[in-house]
Amino acid sequence: MDFAFTKEQMELHEGAKTFGRREVFDSVLERDAAASWNPTLWKKMGEAGLLGAPIPTAYGGTGLSAVETCLVKEGFAEGAQDAGLALAWGASTILCAVPIWKLGTEEQKQKYLPGMCSGEQVGGFCLSEPGSGSDAASMKTRAEKKGDKWILNGTKMWITNGPIGDHFVVTAVTTPGAKAMGISTFIVESGFPGFSVGQKIEKMGMKTSTTSELIFEDCEVPAENLLGQENFGFIGTAKLILGWERSCLLAPGLGGMKATLDRTVRYAQEREQFGRPIGAFQAVRHTIANMKMRYELSRQVIYRVAWALDLDGDPPLVDAAVAKVVTSEAGQANAKDAIQMHGGNGYTPEYHVERSLRDAMLGSIGAGTNEIQRSIIARSMLNLGF
Ligand SMILES: Cc1cc2nc3c(=O)[nH]c(=O)nc-3n(C[C@H](O)[C@H](O)[C@H](O)COP(=O)(O)OP(=O)(O)OC[C@H]3O[C@@H](n4cnc5c(N)ncnc54)[C@H](O)[C@@H]3O)c2cc1C
After folding, report:
1. Ligand 1, residues 134, 241, 362: which to mutate, most atoms within 8 A of Cβ?
2. pLDDT tens across 177-236, in order?
């Protein structure tokens, strides 16, 4: 076992951190307050090779491994401290481009991947619906084959990049009653007849990303836009995405935690009360130690999943669930501690820690709630199957 990153890998990490700091950080407070999306930053991320990190160079990507993609995402998030932009990146690259790369036909890859890598286009992933979140396989969106088209009807909910996306990987029922074995995935362009953006969703955090409902009303999808095998959309895509979601999608959380920890350490060194820096008090020291331990533990579990992904493409379900729970709860606990250690200043946007708590709250909800992850872990321990 080798825990060391190579010099080249550390350069990728540092490069992404410098980019985030230089291009993104200065405007994050303003964009968070206005809940605004910035297409210029997106384009710059594409030009810097970030958006296509794990996608092969043949399709306009950067061709990085999963471990390297995590390093780049972690570095970007530490420099930029913009979790919303990192979420938009995750939805486009990890949840839309990766399934197209892994499951798509050559034509699909040639058509959709280069634009997402360059930043000319934005992708998204549509699984959740108003009536089905944790129980995603009970979705209502239906796809019926009519001639050389699939006709989609239904509503998807909570879709990251929904209002601005150019194409989406969309799940829909193709064999009613078969639950997970009767769901297929499609690549749906926002310009297809019958596609529309529903209500835009206001959020407590991740405000620099956009979220909305998407409506499919007799939406016409060409037959060749079926992604992967019919009826294996849920099993195939979910299985494929899982490892990527529990490593590369979560990696920005590590960078956010690092930035919050560094800020708290600096504050504890500089802020004086009772004639001493507050870092002289044991309660503050222990809090900083707890923050550091949670951060280090999270790094171990995330990179372990990424390493398994690079090794054989199929990280164990339980490891992935452990990574999701450990990292998301560490992010929330560290953000809360950082606010507390900053006193009244922590309660204001200027110190950047109140945003980190609002952003971190999505961690235990999105991409399979932590209750569901705990259930997966416990079912495995108790030999109850999944
Ligand atoms: C900002 C944001 C962005 C998102 N982006 C996307 C996206 O791009 N694409 C997409 O498809 N989805 C997206 N989602 C949706 C997200 O994945 C769902 O919100 C999540 O899966 C939970 O579903 P739900 O909200 O319907 O909650 P529910 O499933 O209704 O859960 C409510 C509560 O009940 C608990 N619960 C439910 N069932 C069980 C059970 N069996 N055992 C124990 N507890 C249970 C849950 O853990 C939770 O605490 C996004 C959500 C948000 C907030």
Report:
1. 134
2. 999 999 999 999 999 999 999 999 999 999 999 999 999 999 999 999 999 999 998 888
pTM of structure: 0.97
Q: Set out the domains of the chain in order of their start, with CATH numbers.
A: 7-122 (1.10.540.10), 124-237 (2.40.110.10), 246-381 (1.20.140.10)
- Give the model confidence (pLDDT) of 206-220 as tens digits: 999 999 999 999 999
- C-alpha separations of 153 from 145, 147, 257 in Å: 12, 16, 41
Q: How many residues does the chain have?
A: 386
Q: Which long-range contacts (CB under 8 A, 24 or more apart) does 308-311 make?
A: 308/243, 309/66, 309/243, 309/244, 309/247, 310/65, 310/66, 310/67
Ligand 1 atom with minimal separation from the 368 CA: 21
Question: What's the one-letter identity of residue 144?
Answer: E
| Ligand 1 contact via 365 beta carbon (within 6 Å) | yes
**Rounded Cα–Cα distance for residues 320 and 248 (Å):** 11
Asked if residue 102 lies in contact with residue 64, where contact means CB atoms within 8 angstroms, the answer is no
Establish whether residue 322 lines the binding site of ligand 1, counting it when its CB lies within 6 angstroms of any ligand atom.
no
With a 6 Å cutoff on the Cβ, whether 374 touches ligand 1 is no
Atom of ligand 1 nearest to the CA of 134: 29
Q: Which residue has the tokens 């360059």?
A: 118
Q: Which residues contact 312 (CB under 8 A, 6 or more apart)?
A: none
End-to-end CA separation in angstroms for the chain: 30
* CB burial of residue 42 (10 Å; 0-12, 13-18, 19+): buried
Which residues is 154 bridged to in the sheet? 216
